[in-house]
Design brief:
With 454 residues, the protein is of the alpha/beta class. It is built from 13 helices and 21 strands. Strand 1, helix 1 and strand 2 form a beta-alpha-beta unit. Helix 7 packs parallel to helix 8 and helix 11 packs parallel to helix 13. The structure holds 5'-deoxyadenosine and iron/sulfur cluster.
């Protein structure tokens, strides 16, 4: 079996990896480490010891990119102190900005999300006068045959990328440009990876894709053997009742009844759906090219809740998209109330160069209005999260222990199936155990619980 943990070997050259952005990027860093370990590198967590410094970057909002520009100054200092150190920018920002990243003469390597296999060659070819770049996007690359080297701390929960890229053209979003066209990964390789994780002690896999509901593996020989997302979920759920399955991200236009019923059928498929709504206003949804309406979205929510009462529901919301009126904003607030989200990621709109919105619609909501609306959205979500947590008081959940609580060394934490974090007394349990807890009280972020049995 391949080593799925970082190799410790003082004699090897060292790579330091900083990861920004989404879960997909976290998993990509694990793919990168696998490729570099095979090429003789070992991971270091100390930037001061690194021979190669990599930043796996995100372009989703301008502030994500600004942070990386700031980090480049730190990387410059490392190079000054220790000549010969190489700096690489990989991921979405590498793809978007390409040779602009080379202008400050700090960066030696620029590699986009589909060119990680070429990193060893790029590294070998770098000289002080010739930085190396590969930003080719691919129609096929899924890194299906590469076993990610896991960098998580707990050894319990792991990401598995089931597809790459995105074929939606949400008008605000840079991802189709940075990650290219959508392609699904061979389901057999996904199942093998999950089995491998399970036999290495992992108890939870999180299947990742930009839009998991459009996962489709086309069998080369027979369309009858094509695999859709519901079928893939079932294949992974059947590996073991002790291996929990999560997934992200669902698209409201594509999430099917088949997926919802498959979730309901298996106890080990966690009852949580991340279903980004973005806005509650039909006018905004249309301009965002989301291809659903408020009514469609709320119908999907009702379906999920009727088939799986208690299913956790989280979302993403953008405040202050182009032309957003006060009424559009109020529509978002009322949708949030109706959907009663358990949690949400909330953002101000940030124009991304090259997107449809940047080309077609002026970014005309004043910054102070964006901020005020975002603050209202956050305040409302805090209330909704609190209400949702209070409803769980008295309930019993099966929790997978993820580690020792920050509050006290005598307490553990883990997630219930609905994705809420529970904290409870350790009483002899350890990371990786399943426990049953009863919720006693809550904060807006945590369910304070006691052990029921086990
Ligand atoms: N501005 C603000 N938020 C954005 N998102 C995507 N693009 C932008 C943008 N240009 C948000 C969406 C998406 C999440 C990952 O990031 O809500 O679901
Ligand atoms: Fe992930 Fe999107 Fe950021 Fe790329 S731009 S890292 S896909 S969130």
């Amino acid at each position: 079996m391949k080593n799925i943990r970082p190799i410790e070997d003082e004699s090897r050259p060292k790579v330091y990896i900083e990861t920004y952005g989404c879960q997909m990027n976290v998993n990509d860093s694990e793919v990168i480490l696998s490729i570099l370990q095979d090429d003789g590198y070992a991971l270091t967590e100390d930037i001061g010891k690194a021979d190669l410094i990599l930043a796996n970057t995100c372009s989703i909002r301008d502030n994500a990119e600004q942070r990386i520009w700031g980090r480049l100054e730190q990387f410059r200092l490392q190079k000054k102190r220790r000549p010969g150190v190489l700096v690489g920018i990989v991921g979405c920002m590498a793809e978007r900005l390409k040779d602009k990243l080379l202008d400050r003469h700090i960066v030696d390597i620029v590699a986009g999300p589909d060119s990680y296999r070429s990193l060893p060659e790029l590294i070998r070819n770098v000289t002080p006068d010739s930085p190396q770049m590969n930003v080719l996007l691919s129609q096929e690359e899924t890194y299906a045959d590469i076993t990610p080297v896991r960098m998580d701390k707990n050894g319990v929960s792991a990401y598995i990328s089931i597809m790459r890229g995105c074929n939606n053209v949400c008008s605000y979003c840079v991802v189709p440009y940075t990650r290219g066209a959508e392609r699904s990964r061979d389901p057999q390789t996904i199942v093998r990876e999950a089995v491998d994780l399970y036999s290495n002690g992992y108890r939870e896999v999180n299947l990742l894709g930009q839009n998991v509901d459009s996962y489709l593996w086309k069998d080369p020989d027979s369309a009858d053997r094509d695999v859709n997302f519901a079928q893939l979920l079932e294949m992974v759920a059947k590996i073991s009742p002790d291996l929990r399955v999560r997934f992200s991200t669902s698209h409201p236009k594509d999430i099917s009844d088949e997926v919802i019923y498959t979730m309901a059928m298996y106890d080990n498929i966690c009852k949580h759906i991340h279903l980004p709504v973005q806005s509650g206003s039909n006018a905004m949804l249309e301009k965002m090219r989301r291809k659903y309406t408020r009514e469609w979205y709320l119908e999907r929510v009702r379906k999920i809740r009727s088939v799986m009462p208690g299913c956790g529901l989280s979302t993403d919301i953008i405040a202050g998209f182009c032309g957003e009126t006060q009424q559009d904003h109020l529509d978002t607030l009322s949708l949030m109330e109706e959907a009663a989200f358990d949690s949400a990621f909330m953002f101000q709109y940030s124009e991304r160069p090259g997107t449809l919105a940047a080309r077609k619609y002026p970014d005309d909501v004043p910054p102070e209005v964006k901020t005020a609306r975002l603050n209202e959205i956050i305040a409302l979500q805090n209330r909704l999260s609190g209400e949702s947590n209070r409803k769980d008081i008295g309930k019993v959940f099966k929790v997978l222990v993820e580690g020792v609580s920050k509050r006290s060394p005598d307490e553990l934490f883990g997630r219930a199936g609905n994705n809420k974090v529970c904290v409870f007394p350790a009483e002899g349990h350890k990371t990786g155990d399943y426990v049953e807890v009863e919720v006693l009280s809550c904060t807006s972020a945590t369910l304070i619980s006691r052990l029921v049995k086990g």
